[in-house]
Structure formats: C-alpha cells, structure tokens
Design a protein that fits this description.
434 Repressor (Amino-terminal Domain), 17% strand, 13 helices, alpha/beta, 313 residues, six-stranded parallel β-sheet
C-alpha cells in the first residue's frame, strides 16, 4: 500500500507538501495539487484513517444510541444524518434494545475514543451513569427533559402537546380513556402528568405498556373493544400502532370518528390516509439540533415544539 513518501517521490515534491494537499491543511498551488492528486490516483493511495485520528484527536464520527431500528426513529436519524454530513461527520448507529448493559457498552466507546460524542435518544441506565460520563468531560447529548444541570439535552416538548390532546378529549366529552405505549419511559411520565390534569385513574379503561407495532395494535383492539368498558378515546405512541388498533376495531364493528377517537404519533402518511389524529414530534429538528449542540459543546437544554394534529374528532 502506498504512503505519502511514495506519493512525494512519484510527484517529485516533499512529503510535507503531500500532507498539506491530502489533508487540505495548508497552501498548495493548483498545479502542484493536481500533480499530487494524479499520483494519488495512479498509486491508489488511501488515507490511514487511524493515523489521522491519532494526529487530529478526532474520529469525525458521532455515535447515536437508539433502542432499535423501528420506523419511529427514522425521522430523528434523518435529521442527525443530514446535519452530521453538513459538518463533515459520519454517524454510527448503536441499538440497545432497551438493554442497559448494551447501552453502557456503547457509551464506553467515548472512553475508547471510537466516537467524538454520543447522542442518546432513550436511556435505559440510571441518570447517575450519564452524570459520570458528563463529569469526565465526554461529549454527550441526551434527548430527555428535566436532566440534572450540566448534562446537555435536546428534547421534544411532549408535556405541552399531551396536555392539549387530553384537553381536547375532555372538551369532546370523552371519559373512557385507553393508553398504549411501548414501555415505561420518561415520555410516559410526561404523558401521565398531563393526563392527571384532566382525569383520574378511574378514567383509564385500558392500558398496555408493551405494545409496539401494527399487529400489536390489532391485538390491543380485540382486547379493549371486547371489554365491558369500551374506550371512547385512545392515545397510542405511534401511527403504526394506531393503524393496527383501527383495523382491529373495525373488524368488531367499531369505527374511528364515530365510535371513538384515536391519537397516534409521528404524523406518518397513513395517519392522513386513514384520517386519524396524530402528534407531529418534529424529530428531524430534534436530531439536527442535537448534532449542533454536540459539536458546539453546548451544555444547555433546548426544547423543540411539537404539534397536535386533530383529524376525524
């Protein structure tokens, strides 16, 4: 494999000139640059990326920890990816499947200098674990609200939009509420905080905390619409799951809009096609803002507005 000394000999220039040309770190005339690049092509030169990392102290890689690769993270990753590319960075996606041990292994990539920083979307470890990484000076952005001072965060303002949703439920006279989520989480805490401003626990006629995809939604619908207290308003954590509930309910003769209202999240195309309410979380903006905060070294918290989009209610 050719190195910069081979390139220098072939182009009849100094190794220092080759280094400036390849790394774009100093002045090289257009003519000399063209000669060097021609030698690079002829000798099939490739940068030793590990050597570059050692010399610059930067990997130019941002780690992104996500629970899994389900579609609900697509918009977020899109925002991260575009902003990273705009700043000359690559991203490394690191799924955890909600396993705290796996998450910690990913976080340790900071100590191994395999990434310049990490964006953590949905944590499984206690906040003290993140605090330790933060105290050691590692660059970490957490997509969560109300973190201890000093831990940088970028998050969607979920509480405000959940409050608007439940206020709408109440205004429409809906009192039998069903709630389905993927797991117990910080987002669920914000949801329930908003819920309790308008309702009491007795108003919850159906609750599931392990519902994920379309088929799960169908199964939930068969349970809730066969119960003694059929819900008249449903919140679920994704449009995909909401579509499953609507499909399952329809098989039992219950129609969205007529017999109940439902709110999903993500504002996917299918929520428009099937005409049901949703919440636009603006996760692409959250992702892009998280990259900006990571690269700038910001240690503040920034909330991104969400939007309740009512349909067929």
């Amino acid at each position: 494999m050719a190195n910069i000394y081979d390139i220098a000999k072939h182009a009849n220039v100094s190794p220092a000139t080759v280094s400036r040309a390849i790394n774009k770190s100093g002045y090289v005339s257009k003519e000399t640059y063209a000669i060097i690049m021609k030698s690079v092509e002829i000798l099939d030169y490739r940068k030793n990326i590990h050597a570059v990392h050692l010399s610059t102290g930067s990997t130019k890689v941002i780690g992104v920890i996500i629970p899994d690769n389900t579609h609900c993270y697509d918009t977020f990753v899109k925002g991260v990816l575009q902003e990273a590319i705009n700043n000359g960075y690559e991203i490394l996606l690191m799924p955890t499947y909600f396993d705290a041990t796996i998450e910690l292994e990913h976080l340790n990539k900071l100590k191994d200098k395999r990434v310049d920083g990490i964006i953590l979307t949905s944590r499984s470890n206690d906040i003290e674990v993140l605090q330790a990484f933060n105290d050691e000076g590692y660059r970490l952005i957490v997509c969560e609200r109300d973190l201890p001072q000093g831990i940088a965060s970028v998050f969607t303002k979920r509480y405000e939009v959940y409050r608007e949703m439940f206020k709408t439920f109440q205004a429409k006279g809906k009192n039998r509420i069903a709630i389905t989520v993927a797991r117990e989480s910080q987002s669920l805490k914000e949801l329930m905080r908003a819920f309790h401003e308008f309702y009491t626990p007795e108003n919850i006629v159906y609750y599931r905390s392990d519902a994920h995809h379309f088929d799960d939604g169908k199964a939930c619908a068969l349970e809730m619409f066969r119960s003694q207290q059929v819900p008249d308003a449903i919140y679920t954590h994704s449009d995909d799951h909401a579509a499953g509930i609507i499909t399952g309910a329809l098989s039992l003769g219950y129609h969205v809009g007529k017999d109940y209202i439902i709110v999903g999240e993500d504002n996917l195309t299918l929520s428009q096609v099937m005409d049901f309410s949703t919440i636009q979380l603006n996760l692409d903006t959250v992702g892009a803002t998280a990259v900006q905060a990571l690269l700038s070294g910001e240690t503040q918290s920034e909330g991104i507005e969400a939007e309740f989009i009512p349909r067929n209610i």
